[in-house]
Amino acid sequence: MAKSASLQKLKFKESIIPTIKDPISAKVLLNRLTNLFNELTSVDQEKVDLSTFDAVKKDLVNQKLLKHNDQGVSVYVASCIADLLRIYAPDAPFTANQLTDIFKLFLKNFKNLGNPDGPYYDQVVYLLKRLAEVRSIILITDLPKSESLIEKLFDLFYNVLSTKNVQKNLIPVISMILGEVIAEAESIPLSVLKLILNKFLTNTTNPSNINLITSSLNISSPSFAYTVAICQTNSDRLSAQLNKFISDILNENIRLIANDEEEDDDIDPKVAMKNLEKVHKLIVEIWKYVPDLLSSVMGLIDDELLSDDVKQRVLATEAIGKIIVHQSPKVNFVVKHHETWIKWLKKTLDISPQVRIKWIEESSKILVSRTDLIADISNGISKSLIDSDEKVRLSACKMLNENLQPSVFISRFSNNITIMKTLGQLVREKHSEIRNEAIKILGNLYNYAINDLISLDLDNFSTIKQKDNKKDDSSDLNNKNDLVSWIPNSIFNLIYINDKEINYSVDITLFEHFFPIESNNEIRVKRLLYILNSLDDRALKSFQAFNKRQKRLSEAFLTLLNLCEKFNGGTISDQKQKELLEKNINKVLQWLCVQMPGNLNTYNVLDRFVKLNNRRLFHLIKLCVSSDSDYETIKNSLKELFNRLTDSKTINNLPSSGQNELISVSTTDMIKNFKLFMYRSSVIFFNKSNISIIMSYTKDETSPFNRIANEIIEQISNIIPNVFQNHIHDGKISEDEMEVDKPYDINIKSLKASFLFFKRYPSYLPTDEHYFNSLKDFSINGSPLEAKYAIKIICLSKQNESLSSSIFKELYPLNYKSSNFVTSLSTIAELFLYQKSLVEPEAAEITSYLIKEVLLENRVSADDENDPDWIRNGELENKVYDECYAKVFALKVFVNRLKSLESEPNAEELAVMVLKLFVSLISNGGEIVSKKSANWPTPKHFQAILRLNTGLMFLKLAKLPVYSKMIRPSTISTLIFLIQDENINVRKEFVTKLKKYLNNQVISERFIPLIFFIAHEPNDQFKLDVRTWIKSSFNRKLQIKEGSKDITFERSFVRLLHLITHHHEFIDLNEKQKAEDNKLFFAYSFAMVYISFYLDCIATQENISLLYYFSNRIKQYRDALVAGELYELDNPPDSIYSIYRVSELACMLIKALAKQKNWILQTWPGKIQLFADLFSPMQSTKEAQKVASTVFIKESILKRLQSQVETETGIKKHVKIPPTTPAKRGRKRKSIEKTPSAKKDKKMAINTPVRRSSRARKIVNYAGDSESEGETGDEFDGESSIED
User: Taking the first listed entry, what is the main subcellular location of this protein, grouped into a coarse class (predicted)?
Assistant: First the structure.
């Protein structure tokens, strides 16, 4: 009894059930329920007399209360019941039916949770929390209609309330309630499972910003929070169901897709595919938040990776990639699912390109988000970049370009040289999109890296450029430098390919990534110097060619603008003048279009530009291309120009007269074309704003930029000297730049720059005495090259006669013992050009002196063991080599004298002597000193320099028509010695000059065949460079005039065959081994080297018939270099038929090439006469018929040659040639040429023996090579030659 008395009893006795006898108003009822609620909330579950609650318990489940319409009554009834469930726990005091009605009441009241401003919101919250605290909600799982109630419960919180304003502090409570239901339910309804999982698919929350167990911050969707909480607390329970759910969906939809070929109207494979995509997205989203839930599902994805269906593998590859991106703090995918990880990595080798591409797309995201998997991912990307499928390679390049910031790229691949090397190869990829993407990647990387590498402190540059310094592997600066330092060379060298689309990409990269617009002069110039300082010689030549192109383009645009202003939109009244202007404008437009890619609509863009007649656009372009504009002016002009061209109103604002002829031109077309045109033609690199800073580096010998700054100044002097205009102080070069004690190289470049500037702007030439005294001192006491440019400047002045006379008097008579003897020769050589009347009276004595005391004397003894093979250009200025330098300048004096006498009557007579001297020097390998002389031999390095400079001066004379016509074919043949010289420096520099002169068309086309004798070149890179130039020059010839047929290179084939016939080695192989077919076979094989090299460079489907015609045509002529009387002999020497044998050999090779290429050899319709200097007509029809019907190559040899060519694939395969023994110097040429008259030979007592190269010949190669690089077309002077 005592215990019963201590139990808490319910005091509430009022009626809460309205009846007819005792009606209760809603207000009264609400007050009574409130009192009941207040008492129930204070009841302690452990100390209560449950019997006292029986009446209330019964009343509260009365239908009148459960279904009462008043919101307040309803919520208080529910709250009271919730407390009763707490008090009676763990046993519910209600029947199953009553509990069903109770939970319906709960759900009814939970709807008000979305209305925080409602009058009973707090009471609803209390109800919710009470059910959560006591876990009374789990009773719902034991009811007969539990599935229906559970579905309604989840539907309420997921659908009804998800769009309403549910307080964030309630989200954990609701999550707890729903989680309890899932945990206790015997089975989870499929609809509920879908509700839970679908929220993963609609989620927009970043997993890094949410902790759904403890917080609801940053949650945009409460229902998603419920999902994550439910899954996290019930992962074990849901894992199996999830696995079955996903497995069913996968199997069903895969079956639908597999049965797509069967006609079934009920099957929509697109829907099935979308379902599969959703499932895989679901898996990824679940991984982000509840990775444990996927423990069973991963097996399904693993199986998909090995599926036969490509779509499944694509989806699985994508899903796993996204999973790996999100590293869970609880589960390491790579460790827990290692086998799946390995299979995923192998998808780079999947048979389907779609799968490989998908792998690439996902790998980029992994690289950005994770650093622990770099090695494996990098290896896969390396494979993708060299994939056999171009789509895969393109995808890999796009991924690196678009998805990886340069900072991420460098940090991830700082130690991966393979990827960088591969990108370096891809910039030469055939596929244009891949190539362009690779160029963009490298441009972006270099732009990013150089911003860190270049600072205002020059010490940073010095540290980077010192190759001997030990690098700290942990240094980011050194890592970046190692990673990107090669990029400029790679990009600049692409210009040699000479492809218009490649050039477009290169130019955009250079101007937007290497040299972007930068207003700060110091930073801009340092960047320019830094990049140029990193270039190799080949790339630096590309830069020089780039600036030469800039000059040509700027002149073309100025011409176009001048014509446009005269044309004035076509409004001029003079019809003839209008037509003339239209014709000239069209010529300029056509010239500009030739340089542009074919997909830019360039002609229509330029035509629209002309028709717009927009004077503001004209003015802006003039500012950009003018050398008088400073950098800031060009920058602002470019900005305004591009802005105007992107405005459709501007480019469509045509006069009414032009509207009818309107051709579609978009703003994109305009900006693409004019951006490239302006980048190429604007004075950006050699801008006058840059000059003073560049010149400051030329004076600082400690600067790492000193060398390159001097080179740039020299380039500016040659290309655009007028930019120096603002740097001529007070009308003259500042005195500190004229000090004689300055380093030699700096003075040379300063003097050269001054000369080129004053030559163009003579009004700036100073007149003060001090200046010219300095120049006079240079011309007498300076170095040879200082003297050269000093005398050139003097000869531009008004007092040049008096100054020149004064200088000559100090130098003449010559004295080889003088310490400045070479300087004297340099000055006199220039005086022959500029002051002929002053020195010509003494020319005979000067010539005699130079031959006797300089050329035929050696005052330095040869030491074959210790003498170097070569002397570099700068080293020639060393006094040690004065003996050699004097010989070179002696030749220079002879050449300059001839140049000055070009129009004189005795020019040819004097030239005969000089040309024979040159032939003798070249033929004797640079030696003309007699063996009987005590001074013999000339040192070998002197000989090499003399050979080279003799050849170069030979070419200089060939530029003048009067001397060019004197050069006989046999003389040209002598130059082959230089192309095949034993010294690589001689070969390279001579061929470089030859290419330059041929390219500029300043020497006769008779010299073209010489270039093909590079075929035996042992240096593969050099040979490739020459081959590249030949193909580029040939292609340019084809593009000069639309519709024209320039056959210069095709005609040269005849001259080449003639030169081969008279080549000393071919003659020797024929004459020495007359009776041995095997040796004769090697003679023809030797000739085949040159012919096949020519065909490889020049032959096309269009000209192959013409080349065959030329080869056959030779057999209709006699060899003009063979004495005519030899043809009339009854038994003529067999050697006179050598030209026909070479002709037949060429025909055989052409046929073989045509067969291999599937080209059709057609009869050439025209008739072309062969060169009269090489061929003479036959004297009778009988002779012509005999030659035409005779096969001059022995049948046994012919079969061997045919078999050799036909059994090998391609036009260039291997034929062995025995090494030839070089002939001793002094041996005369064995030839069947006409011999010059004895009278002429007596004019110079110097023999012309034949010199043979000591280089071993390469084997003949007939392998076809369909690809080649083009070339810029701009060539440069060699190292050890004397410039004009």
Answer: nucleus
CA atoms within 13 A on the CB side of 941: 23
Which residues, 6+ apart, have CB-to-CB distance to 339 below 8 Å?
302
- Output the pLDDT for position 163: 62
Q: Which residues have C-beta within 8 Å of that of residue 1229, sequence separation ≥ 6?
A: 923, 1064, 1248, 1249, 1250
Cis peptide before 90 (omega within 30 of 0): yes
The DSSP-derived string for 1147-1216 is HHHHHHHHHHHT-------S--PPPTTTEEE-S-HHHHHHHHH---S-HHHHHHHHHHHHHSSSSEEEE-
Q: How far apart are CA 48 and CA 11, in angstroms?
A: 12
What 3-state DSSP class applies to 48? strand
Q: Give me the sign of the Cα torsion angle 849, 853, 857, 858.
A: negative
Average pLDDT, stretch 1069-1079? 63
Instruction: Give the whole-angstrom CA distance, residue 95 versus residue 67.
Output: 17
Contacts of 571 (CB under 8 A, 6+ apart): 655, 657
DSSP track, 498-535: --HHHHHHHHHHIIIIIS-----HHHHHHHHHHHHHT-
User: What burial class does residue 524 get, using C-beta atoms within 10 Å of its C-beta: 0-12 exposed, 13-18 middle, 19+ buried?
Assistant: buried
For tokens 């070249």, the residue is: 922
Residues 1135, 1071 contacting (CB under 8 angstroms): yes
Query: Over the stretch 486-539, which tens digit does the pLDDT of each residue have?
Result: 899 999 988 888 888 899 999 999 999 999 998 888 889 989 998 998 888 888
Measure the CA angle with vertex 564, ends 559 and 565; round to 5°: 100
Contacts 24+ apart (CB under 8 A), 346-350: 347/305, 347/313, 347/317, 348/380, 348/383, 348/384, 349/383, 350/313, 350/317
d(CA 271, CA 248): 16
Q: 276 Cβ partners below 8 Å, 6+ apart? A: 249, 250, 253, 254, 257, 311, 312, 315
pLDDT tens for each residue of 726-764: 666 533 444 344 444 443 444 566 777 778 778 877 877
The contacts of residue 887 (CB under 8 Å, 6+ apart) are 854, 855, 942, 946
pTM above 0.85, yes or no: no
Structure tokens that stand for 1172 in this block = 């009269």
- Burial zone of 586 (CB within 10 Å; 0-12 exposed, 13-18 middle, 19+ buried): middle
Res 454: pLDDT? 65
Give the residue from 1015, 1198, 1173, 1180 showing the smallest Cα distance to 1094: 1015
The alpha-helical segments, DSSP class H, found in 815-906 are: 821-834, 836-839, 843-849, 882-900
Phi-psi region of 211 (alpha: psi -120 to 50; beta: other; left: phi over 0): beta
Find out whether the peptide bond into 116 is cis, omega within 30 degrees of 0: no
Question: H helices of 1100-1137, where?
Answer: 1104-1113, 1124-1128
Integer Cα distance of 90 and 551 in angstroms: 96
Which segments of 993-1103 are extended strands (E)? none
- What gap in Å lies between CA 1048 and CA 615, rounded to an integer? 43
pLDDT in tens, 1033-1042: 888 776 654 4
| One-letter amino acid of 639 | K
CA distance to 480, 733, 734, per residue, from 751 (Å): 40, 9, 12
Tokens at residue 761, please? 């702007």
What are the φ and ψ backbone dihedral angles of 1233, each rounded to 5 degrees? -70, 160
Task: Evaluate whether 931 touches 858 at the Cβ level (below 8 Å).
Answer: no
